[in-house]
Amino acid sequence: MAHPVVHFEIGIRDSEKSIAFYRDLFGWDVQDAGPDYWLVSPGNGGIGGGLMRGREDIPPYVTVYVAVDDLQPSLDRVVELGGEVLVGPTPIPDMGSFALFRDPDGNVIGIIQQ
To answer: How many CA atoms lie within 13 A of 91 on its CB side?
Structure first.
């Protein structure tokens, strides 16, 4: 796969309840990674991810992040193909950058440049 899914994110409201739920259900190792964000290590060779406490105006969600070589050309192509850029290139300290877009069906997808 030229551009693999490399990260997932689950939007949560009640962090204690949600972290316990995913730990107990799947045995995920969940570690605090900053304000309102927890990194997930599945420990079985699957991709890692995160749990993010959302604001009240954002409903719970699940998003995948796809690896790309360069964010801006990818976002330009999103628009050409009928999608919408939601979050432009945004740095992630010591990791790279990410962006979010909505596909023509309304799905929110992330892209990440490491």
So the answer is: 2
Measured from the Cβ of residue 9, the count of other Cβ atoms closer than 10 Å reads: 20
Q: How far is CA 23 from CA 17, 26, 35, 63, 93, in A?
A: 10, 6, 19, 19, 26
- The yes-or-no verdict on residue 57 having pLDDT over 90 is no
For residue 8 the two structure tokens come to 């997932």
- Name the one residue in this structure whose structure tokens are 């990674």: 33
Closest CA to 75 of 86, 63, 62: 86
**Strand, coil or helix: 98:** strand
Q: Are 98 and 88 in contact (CB under 8 A)?
A: no
pTM of the model: 0.87
